[in-house]
Design brief:
heterodimer, A: about 650 residues, alpha+beta, 6-stranded antiparallel β-sheet, 4-stranded antiparallel β-sheet, B: about 150 residues
């Protein structure tokens, strides 16, 4: 009954979304206030209907309702409660429901917080949101309905893929979806502005918080996914340039560019057409990502089971929305004349360079991701594009960004003197060179990439520190610190995010160039050396979990005779899913992780043990977290708060109607 | 005996093997290092986008052993890789070649950067030359003023 209610709510949500897409758009064209005013309540209604639908599917998972096909395929009575709930979105249909739930939430929030938006802009934004919602609800109802019943329900389910039964992965998709879908707001604002033929500073101000929120969720989602890969897949890899990872990375790159170019629109009324294009592309890439994940045309580790009709449907949605928006852009972009003038050397140009590097790097990732498909179709050539290509092709852009960033961030708007802007960087540059030399000396010159990465990280962080120091003006230390504390939160957010980029570079470079690896057969009781540590395999024991059995090893790690840690890597067998997983034991530390994996017994005389030292691995996740925190700080700045903005000018807008 | 071995092999399949197994490693550390470096660039054919160095699959194990046997036999890096490509096709190469149409793949990034830089430069030039007086009309100035006032609210 509750399931049928959810199914019904979903269908009703689709109908409401259709109305939300059509009527306000007509209203905006005819200046019909009643039709325009329909958009808001429709968005709210759509959200609550989909929320009811999502709630009822969750109910079916929690109560293990095995008359539902989806529950049978992805759940089991013995599964822990956390994964029963997470199982809702651990599959294609359920994750799509979460996707549309997030979409309708953004639409409803645009209504709840958008009371100061001009009525026509708001009606059009909500109508575009409604259209996207309607398309995806149709996709669900016709190709991927989560509410299909089984005629003869089995006694129990098939369990969720054990790799997904992990807290990191339970919360990774919701964040990613909030990010992907959040970009639909920027898209809706862009399309509405194109229809209206008007982009101004206020538009930039309205778009930025939404983009920032989407970017922030994407950052958290990607960081969590990467952390999950690091500890769950069993060899400490954190990024594989897998098509599905790229699918989340491409929108992130474009969203990062959009975030920066929207500043130029807001502050200087320049780069308008470009910003609109980025807003379209950002959501376009999140649709491309959806296509990659759900069509299975590009093989990947995390893709959901593929289905050609689903792929065609998503491709059609992609063609209609992105194709339509780009056509509109081609027709109307000329009307968006730029106002702000800027010189060749100015913060505007700095941000243009930022945008250039980010978008071209996204393009490189995109080409690499679809190349196997292109080569197969055009030349019937089966080939692979893997990590070596992406590392080689992407790295120059990351390096370029890191070099330019601190300088661009301190350039004044409009016109700058490069010589004067560079002068205060002497100290930062000296520090950077010293750090590179130190890294080179300490590691004995194993690689040039390592010291280069350290140099970039130091350069970024020193640049941020110098910028903050300059911003607090002149005077005594107390006066300066006082001014520092009073800096707007957006400035702190920027500093935090840029420093986070530095921290992430440091983590990535250390992890890839200075990791220590040891693979060997170890007998119970035997010790071996791992870098400065000595590791002893104490013994193995069997344990039983709720839906798995595990063989847990105990390893004692000592350094100069003193105990550092007792670690318990395990091998789990999930009998229902018929799969086994390796649970690595990790002792995280600020200077590096100890990472141990125990494998099979080797002909009865010991166990295969893989041990790693992963220097400064923590810094990578810390960097991601800092970027997200920077986004949060900026978002909490009262000047950019979603609800803030032209509260007083809303009266003006009403009067003008 | 053969059947017993098959059963044992199946039983082993059920438990996860960790990618590079100790028994397949070469005693010569130099050769082993070369094998590791090469196997990071070779794809496990039955896996989705994993190198044979990272993969737990049996096929990956076989390929690692094959690669090591070629290296022990005295093959150079190129010869060993060519040997595997000749048998499994271009698909095993995670690092695409620079032959034929792949030139487009490798050239796309630099070309896009140059094109983008040229476009940005020409637009910036035009922007820098644009008369400044025309940039802000009185209405715009009023708008900016209104915005600035709101900022301080």
């Amino acid at each position: 009954m509750i399931v049928e209610l959810g199914h019904y709510a979903l269908i009703l949500g689709f109908v409401v979304a259709c109305l939300q897409a059509i009527l306000p758009m007509i209203g905006a064209a005819r200046r019909d206030l009643v039709l325009m005013a329909l958009a808001g309540p429709a968005a709210t209604a759509q959200f609550w209907l989909i929320a009811v639908s999502f709630g009822s599917l969750t109910y079916a998972f929690v109560t293990s309702d095995f008359s539902l096909r989806l529950v049978v395929n992805n759940s089991h009575t013995l599964k822990p409660m956390l994964y029963k709930v997470a199982g809702v979105w651990g599959n294609h249909e359920g994750s799509l429901l979460l996707w549309v739930l997030a979409l309708s939430l953004y639409g409803a929030m645009a209504h709840w917080f958008g009371s100061q938006l001009p009525a026509r802009l708001k009606a059009r934004v909500l109508a575009v949101q409604g259209a996207i919602g309607a398309a995806f609800l149709a996709f669900m109802l016709w190709t991927s309905n989560p509410f299909l019943r089984l005629a003869s329900p089995p006694m129990n389910g098939h369990d969720l893929n054990p790799l997904l039964q992990d807290p990191g992965l339970a919360f990774h998709p919701p964040f990613l979806y909030l990010g992907y879908v959040g970009l639909s707001m920027a898209f809706a604002f862009a399309v509405a502005a194109l229809i209206e033929g008007r982009v101004d500073a206020a538009w930039g101000r309205w778009v930025r918080p939404w983009t920032l929120a989407a970017w922030l969720f994407l950052t958290i989602g990607i960081t969590m996914g990467s952390l999950w890969a690091y500890y769950e897949l069993g060899w400490g890899g954190f990024w594989f340039w897998d098509p599905v990872e790229n699918a989340s990375f491409m929108p992130w790159l474009i969203a990062t560019a959009l975030l920066h170019s929207a500043i130029v629109v807001e502050k200087r009324e320049s780069l308008k057409a470009w910003t609109i294009l980025l807003a379209i592309l950002a959501f376009g890439f999140s649709l491309v990502g959806t296509f990659i994940v759900r069509s299975g045309v590009i093989t990947s580790v995390h893709a959901f089971a593929s289905d050609p009709t689903r792929g065609m449907f998503v491709l059609a949605i992609l063609a209609v929305f992105v194709g339509g928006a780009l056509t509109l852009f081609a027709l109307r972009a000329g009307a968006l004349e730029a106002k702000g003038v800027f010189a060749m050397v100015s913060r505007e140009t700095g941000l243009v360079v930022n945008n250039l590097l980010l978008t071209v790097s996204c393009f490189v990732v995109f080409i690499g991701t679809i190349w196997p498909l292109v080569a197969e179709i055009l030349w019937n050539r089966a080939l692979s594009v893997g990590a070596p290509f992406f590392n080689a092709a992407f790295m120059p852009f990351a390096i370029g960004l890191a070099i330019v960033l601190p300088i661009g961030a301190v350039l004044p708007w409009k016109r700058a003197d490069l010589g004067r802007a560079l002068k205060p960087f002497a100290g930062a540059l000296a520090l950077t060179v010293a750090a590179a030399l130190l890294a080179y000396a300490v590691t004995g010159g194993v690689s040039t990439l390592g010291p280069l990465g350290v140099a970039l990280a130091v350069w970024l962080v020193a640049g941020v520190a110098m910028d903050l120091w300059q911003r607090c003006g002149r005077g005594t230390l107390a006066q300066r610190l006082g001014r520092l504390a009073r800096l707007p939160r957006a400035d702190w957010g920027r500093a935090m995010a840029h420093a986070g980029f530095g921290a992430a570079i440091f983590g990535i470079v250390s992890l890839t160039t200075w990791a220590v690896e040891d693979i060997r057969v170890v007998n119970v009781g035997e010790s071996y050396d791992l870098g400065p540590y000595s590791v002893q395999l104490v013994g193995l024991s069997d344990q039983t979990g709720p839906n798995y059995t595990a063989e847990v090893a105990e390893l004692r790690v000592t350094k100069d005779g003193a105990e550092v840690a007792v670690m318990h890597p395990a091998k789990r067998t999930y009998p229902i899913a018929g799969m086994a997983t390796n649970e690595a034991a990790i002792r995280p530390g600020i200077f590096g992780d100890i990472y141990l994996v125990v494998g099979d017994a080797q002909d009865g005389v010991g166990y295969a043990v893989r041990s790693y030292l992963k220097p400064f691995a923590l810094w990578l996740w810390l960097g991601g977290l800092m970027m997200a925190l920077g986004g949060m700080l900026s978002l909490s700045d009262r000047r950019f708060r979603v609800a803030a903005g032209a509260r007083r000018s809303s009266n003006v807008a009403v009067a003008a109607e | 005996m053969k059947r017993l071995a098959a059963v044992l092999a199946l039983a082993l399949l059920a438990t996860p093997a960790i990618a590079v197994r100790p028994d397949e490693m070469l005693p010569d550390p130099g050769l082993e290092a070369r094998a590791r470096a090469l196997s990071q660039g070779l794809r496990c054919l039955v896996c989705r986008n994993e190198s044979i160095d990272d993969s737990d699959a049996d096929l990956a194990h076989d390929l690692r052993v094959l690669l090591r046997s070629r290296l022990t036999a005295g093959d150079s890096d190129e010869q060993a890789v060519a040997y595997i490509v000749a048998r499994y096709g271009e698909f095993v190469l995670l690092n695409p070649t620079t032959q034929g149409a792949n030139l487009i793949l490798w050239g796309a990034g630099p070309a896009a950067l140059l094109a983008g830089a040229w476009l940005a430069l020409s637009v910036t030039r035009r922007r820098a030359r644009a008369p400044e007086a025309a940039a802000l009309s009185p209405e715009d100035q009023a708008k900016v003023k209104a915005l600035m006032e709101n900022t301080r609210v």
